[in-house]
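Appendix B. Chain record.
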Amino acid sequence: MSSQRGCNNWRNGLDLIHSLKKKYGGTIEDVLAFGNQAERKLQALEQRTRNDSIEPKAIAEKTAKLWKVGTRLSEARSKVIPAASQSGEQQLGDLGFKQSRMDVSIATLDTKALKGSLRFEQSDSQMSSSGLDEVEFQFEPIRASRRVR
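Structure tokens predicted for this chain:
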């Protein structure tokens, strides 16, 4: 029985060699060359993946810098908003909208709750590409009580 098993293994091996030669070239050398080329491609991909991975320490450093810059931008916006609202109303008055109102509001994300998450999606609860704030310009046109001719 052992000789039958050995014969079957031998036939299976020959069948495998013939199918590989049919698929990857007419000779065993062609099959081996294809295998070596595939191995080199795989190693190149694995190396590239290792090179592209970012170290956790680098991510943490960049995240901290991002939050610092985002916080400074938010503070600067908060200082400018009152003047922007007043200037907008003044300019509207110059254009003939004397009773109209313009307001600029700012909603800053809760940075303490978000610390540690690094997401750049437009959402009420996450930092976006424009920072930690959602700025809204509101204009309320009020019609004059008399007609303009």
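Further analysis of this model is presented in Appendix C.
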